[in-house]
Amino acid sequence: MFGIVLCIVGLLLFYLTGSRSTPRQLAYLLGAIGHISLFAGPTTRLPLTRRGLILTYVGAVVGLVAIVWFTTFYPSNWTGLEGNPAVTLYIVGLGLMAVGTVVSPLLTGRKEVYAEAIRTGQRRK
């Protein structure tokens, strides 16, 4: 819920403020933090492996570092449409979070279910 509210407030601020302004910077920050919390928040409730959770949280930290880095050069030193390393780092953080929450369970799920079935079956004997 927190992430959704941040994203909505960020979008509203984005559309209501002028480009390359401090309020626009706040809009970017709220939207980016909201997006990260939308990814990371539900993972605490998912039955993920330890590796999946760690990868998700590392991705969140990478994304937050990118947000802090972004604030150091926007709006005064923004270079324009060619992109920026902080934005790329933010995308890398989101990618790590996606791998941790989606890809990691797909790759490790069957092996762990099998191991759990064997372990549970051994206890019943």
What do you see in this structure?
The chain is an all-alpha fold. Helix content is 79%, strand content 0%. It is built from four helices and no strands.
Features:
single chain, 125 residues, mainly alpha, 4 helices, elongated
Biggest pleated-sheet summary = none
How far apart the termini lie comes to: 45 Å
Q: What would you call the quaternary organization?
A: single chain
Structural class: mainly alpha
The parts where pLDDT drops under 50 for at least 5 residues are none
Order of helices and strands: HHHH
Sheet-strand content, in percent, reads under 5%
Helical content class = over 70%
Radius of gyration, CA atoms, in whole angstroms: 19 Å
Give the overall form: elongated
Q: What is the count of β-strands? A: 0
Q: How confident is the prediction overall: mean pLDDT?
A: 80
H/I helix tally = 4
Task: Indicate the topology.
Layout (H helix, E strand, L loop, with lengths): L1 H15 L5 H22 L6 H22 L13 H40 L1
Helix pairs in contact: 1-2, 2-3, 2-4, 3-4
